[in-house]
Amino acid sequence: MLPREIVRKLHRIRIRTNRLVDAGVGGEYHSVFRGRGMEFSEVREYVPGDDVRTIDWNVTARTGVPHVKKYVEERDLTVLLLLDLSASQGFGSQYLTKRELMAELAALLSFAAVKNHDRVGALLFTDRLERYHPPRKGVDHALAITRDALSLAPVGRGTDLTLALRSAASLLKQRAVVFVVSDVLAAGYEKPLKTLNKRHDVVAIPISDPREQLLPPAGLVRLRDAETGATGVFDTADPAFREAWGRRGAGMPEPAAVFRTTGIDSIPLRTDASYELPLVRFFKEREKRKAAGR
User: Fold this and answer.
1) pLDDT of residue 37 exceeding 60
2) How far apart are CA 253 and CA 184, in angstroms?
3) Quick one: fold of 4-32+76-209+254-289?
4) Segments making up each domain of the chain, as ranges
């Protein structure tokens, strides 16, 4: 049985994300991530304004009345969420931890998929594969993904993004939309990311917290690395330490640069800001690019 606090958080997330899906995110999702094509539905009489290219000449000749073919979108779309459960995701200096923000995004994307009759799955990972939800349809399935994104206790603490990307490539048997939701505190993932994007539509959602780049000058503070467990006492008022803190990820590739060079669309999000506007902006910009053929 889930702890009462987790149940309350799940209830809040479900209400909030369902409202966003109904308010328009579900429609934006539908427009950007289209199905495999169009399939024939029925024949009906022609009305002014119909595309003449859809006229069914056989039926028209037989009845003496112009008829057109009607098509509906054949969705059959698969969505896979790669969800980072590493220990660093538990950090949050503002309203939400990075993991709580990730859980809300997982719920939003899962319920948008369900609303559009798509299959959605999730691969939850740390420095190992923690749990896999094969893509399926249905509200209960979306809730199970959200529950694990929020509350699953992982075995690992580190981040192996390469393992997650390669596992997704082997698990997916047909083209899918893959959302990578992570703080991207990892290295060496460029090649598997590019390989996955060749066959699938990959969208990265890097999550960060403002205190990861800038600490307040609060004097002596004991800090612990969430993934390695290393601890130390540091003077946050020391300019040299503050400069080093801002550069502590210098040994890792800059995610934005990696996404640009690999041709990956990304939606950078922060724990201290709303995710609604960046998501809607991304959907609208991507729809414009598709309409322009880019």
Assistant:
1) no
2) 9
3) Rossmann fold (3.40.50)
4) 4-32+76-209+254-289, 37-74
